[in-house]
Every structure is written in C-alpha cells, then in structure tokens.
Write a structure and sequence with these properties.
The chain has 125 residues and is an alpha/beta fold. The chain contains two helices and eight strands. The protein is globular, with a radius of gyration of 16 Å.
Length: 125
C-alpha cells in the first residue's frame, strides 16, 4: 500500500483582468500585505498564517454571473469571509470597491462582487 502524502492548501488563486488591482482590493479589505509580486501575478498572505490568496492576470478573463444562469460564465468558487459586524463590513467593502449583489439569499449573509466580478460572501462570526 502506498503511503498517503500530506496535502494542505497554501493558496487560493483567482484569475482576473488585473492581478495588481485585485490584490490591492483584497489587501485593503483583509489587511494583508503583498508577499510576492510579478508583472501578472501577486501573492497575499494573512499575517497570522494560514491559506493565502494569489491573483493571476488573464487577458481572456470573463467575470462569473451570480446567481448562475444557463449558458453564462459560471462561478467556480467564492470566498466566505467571516466578519464581526455585517453592516459595517459591507460599508467597508463597498468603500474599497466592492459592489453589493442585487440578489441576497439570506439575512445573515451579504453577497458582494469584487472589482473583477467574483462574488464573495460576508457572514457573522
């Protein structure tokens, strides 16, 4: 029997039209610093450790549609971000460039779009 190697997720990568712009948005939102940068790729890491976020510029990037609709670009994942004050966190995110989604499926979750059109959720701690 083959030994199972250790797996851990180090980074979640998001495709986007401009890696530096989207890294700036999430860096400001989360308070994370850039830890590596190339012309078309940027890495952010949480100062407390854990999984990081990276951003890859893709010239053919198309933002996903949410809620999903047939024959449209589907989202492949979304980020769930824990907050301690939902209203204040939404205001802060919007001030940094997020847009509130029209469809809000739950009272205790806020769905927003980042500047590249990826949906993400804010939820109470």
């Amino acid at each position: 029997m083959t030994r199972k190697p250790h797996f851990s997720i180090a980074t979640i990568a998001l495709d986007c039209p401009d890696a530096h712009q989207l890294a700036g948005f999430y860096g400001g939102l989360l308070g994370w610093d850039v830890t590596a940068s190339e012309p078309d790729w940027v890495l952010l890491r949480c100062p407390d450790g854990g999984t990081g976020l990276s951003f890859q510029s893709e010239p053919g990037y198309r933002p996903p549609v949410w809620p999903e609709r047939p024959a449209e670009q589907q989202k492949m994942l979304h980020l769930d971000i824990r907050v301690d004050d939902l209203d204040e966190a939404e205001r802060y995110a919007v001030a940094h460039g997020a847009v509130r989604a029209e469809h809000q499926p739950q009272d205790d979750v806020r769905v927003l779009y980042d500047p590249a059109g990826h949906p993400f959720c804010l939820f109470l701690d």
